[in-house]
Structure formats: structure tokens, C-alpha cells
Write a structure and sequence with these properties.
Strand order of the largest sheet: 2-1-6
Order of helices and strands: EEHHEHHEEE
Distance between the termini: 30 Å
CATH class: Mainly Alpha
Number of domains: 1
Oligomer: single chain
CATH superfamily: Winged helix-like DNA-binding domain superfamily/Winged helix DNA-binding domain
């Protein structure tokens, strides 16, 4: 697929992983995962690189101005993880177990108007 997504006339969703851009045949789980504003915000916060779970919670609290319940954040992280957008890794740091959250893939979406629907 290279660096470009070919114009096919149908909606295209592609994920970029280590091996390049791949078209997703069933994008519904990804769209569903990113439908919620908090999950979109979590995904965007990982734009600059991985964060520890506690750092992610603090970043969300700062940006929303609200206290974030850790179980709520974990719930949304699991949904993003099941969609293949993020992954969590246990890291031991000085005898303390921390959870590092990273993006698994970048997303590129191109939607083309069908020629038979053109105005």
C-alpha cells in the first residue's frame, strides 16, 4: 500500500504499523472505539509517545478539569486495546509495577463521494 492510500471510490481505513500501511477490511471496531470523545482524547495524548497509565490519567484530568476515576480510564483503554489501537505493557521500575500505554497504530481515513451520488 506504500505511503498513499489508493482512490477506490469506497471509504478506506488504513492502519500504520511497523510493516507499513495496511487497509482494514472491517473498520467498525476502530470507528466504535474512537466514537467516544474521551477515547479519542486518550489516543491523541499518546501522539507524542508512550505514557505510564498514571501519567495518562493526570493528563486527562488536566485537560478536562475533572477528576478521572481510574476504573473509567481502564475501561476505555481496554476498548482501544481490543480495537488494536493501543497496547499496555507492565514495567517494573525500582520494585514498583507500572503500566506503560503506547499507540499500536496510526490511522489514516479517506472517504470518497460515490460518483453516482455526485451533486
Amino acid at each position: 500500500m506504500g505511503g498513499r492510500i489508493e482512490k477506490t471510490g469506497k471509504p478506506v481505513l488504513a492502519l500504520k504499523r511497523d510493516d507499513g500501511w495496511k487497509e482494514v477490511s472491517e473498520p467498525y471496531a476502530i470507528f466504535r472505539a474512537l466514537q467516544h470523545p474521551l477515547r479519542r482524547q486518550m489516543y491523541e495524548l499518546l501522539d507524542d509517545g508512550p505514557l505510564f497509565q498514571s501519567e495518562l490519567v493526570r493528563s486527562l484530568e488536566r485537560s478536562t478539569g475533572k477528576r478521572m476515576d481510574v476504573s473509567r480510564v481502564l475501561h476505555h483503554l481496554r476498548i482501544l486495546e481490543r480495537a488494536g489501537l493501543v497496547y499496555r505493557k507492565d514495567v517494573k521500575e525500582g520494585g514498583v509495577r507500572k503500566v506503560l500505554v503506547s499507540r499500536r497504530a496510526d490511522i489514516r481515513v479517506q472517504i470518497y463521494r460515490r460518483p453516482d451520488l455526485a451533486v
